[in-house]
Design brief:
By secondary structure, the chain is an alpha/beta fold. Helix content is 40%, strand content 16%. The chain has a single domain, classed as Alpha-Beta Barrel (TIM Barrel). The strands form two sheets. It has an eight-stranded parallel beta barrel, surrounded by eight helices. Strands 6-7 form a two-stranded antiparallel sheet.
Length: 331
């Protein structure tokens, strides 16, 4: 007699049989509220495409205001602004970074005028858009000056806060800048301004398209940022960076890039339990778009999967250039 095969009583495939059931038991759910839309703003009236980032454009201030309106409609809670600064406003001392009439400040005021507090605005605090050499800090004899840079960053953060930016995001990776910026904001009466610290920002090869969009790639040339951005080989150091920034007054922390630092996102969330942001950077976006354009992958499915795993790792909010497309898909 042929023995009766022994079958398992527990079959995990049962919960995968129906699309509605897969949705019902999903452990990670991506919603428009989990996204922040990064926007490039420039001085020109016409929008200009960023060739290395298909679907992304440099927008006028009016265009940024319209994009903020679109974000509101889609349920995206905030936009992140990155100014494309004209060469005439770049200098070795980055003095235009704290000019109240600079492009970033004007864009913030325009969004505030149109939308009030209904849409969040996040602005980078870093000097690379404003330096003639393309670095995030002041440079002397080939060396980035930490403390001198921090002094300028404080002025930049205050200028952005006074323009109406509710969240300033130091992305420069100078030591001690979070504490100094917190003190400067408080001294200016801006106690309510949040600090989103780029606490674990790696010196990554995936930033290239962003630098071209921002206009800092040509100035930076063959130089790199390895003396201040983190070594991708290090994980424990990232935890130290986050701990220091929180101790100095950061309200939220950022890990960047996202897909090559999923382990860091997870460790940060598990270790500190604080609002943890992740940035799906330009190179990650460009890879998906390029593969989709060649017909090698389904672009929207790949984008959605990539964002789901970033959230699964522990990110509370994700900066992504896919934000409007994904919000339409999941909203």
């Amino acid at each position: 007699m042929t023995p009766t095969p022994s079958f398992p009583t527990t079959r995990l495939r049962r919960n995968r049989q129906h699309e509605w059931l897969r949705r019902a038991v999903a452990e990670t759910v991506l919603a428009p509220a989990d996204l922040v839309w990064p926007l490039f703003v420039h001085e020109h009236e016409a929008s200009l495409p960023v060739p290395s980032m298909p679907g992304v454009e440099r927008l006028s201030i009016d265009g940024v205001v319209k994009a903020a309106d679109e974000a509101l409609t889609l349920g995206i809670p905030a936009v992140a602004l990155f100014p494309v600064v004209e060469a005439t406003h770049k200098s070795d001392d980055a003095r235009h970074a704290f000019d109240p009439s600079n492009l970033a400040c004007r864009a913030v005021r325009a969004i505030r005028k149109e939308h009030g507090d209904s849409i969040g605005i996040i602005c980078d605090v870093a000097l690379d858009p404003y330096t003639s050499h393309g670095h995030d800090g002041l440079l002397r004899d080939g060396i980035i000056l930490n403390d001198e840079t921090v002094a300028v960053l404080c002025k930049q953060a205050v200028a952005l806060a006074e323009a109406g930016c509710p969240v300033v995001a130091p992305s420069d990776m100078m030591d001690g800048r979070v504490g100094a910026i917190r003190a400067a904001l408080d001294a200016a009466g801006r106690h309510e301004t949040c600090i989103l610290s780029y606490a674990a920002k790696y010196a990554s090869a995936f930033y290239g398209p962003f630098r071209y969009a921002l206009g800092s790639a040509g100035a930076l040339g063959a130089a790199d940022k390895k003396t201040y951005q983190m070594d991708p080989a290090n994980a424990d150091e990232a935890i130290r960076e986050v701990a220091l920034d929180l101790a100095e007054g950061a309200d939220m922390v950022m890990v960047k890039p996202a897909l090559t630092a999923l382990d860091i996102i997870h460790r940060v969330k598990q270790s500190f339990g604080v609002p943890t942001f992740a940035y799906q950077v330009s190179g990650e976006y460009a890879m998906i778009q390029a593969a989709a354009a060649n017909g090698w992958i389904d672009g929207i499915k790949a984008a959605l999967e990539s964002l789901l795993v970033i959230k699964r790792a522990g990110a509370d909010c994700i900066l992504t250039y896919f934000a409007p497309e994904i919000a339409r898909h999941v909203g």
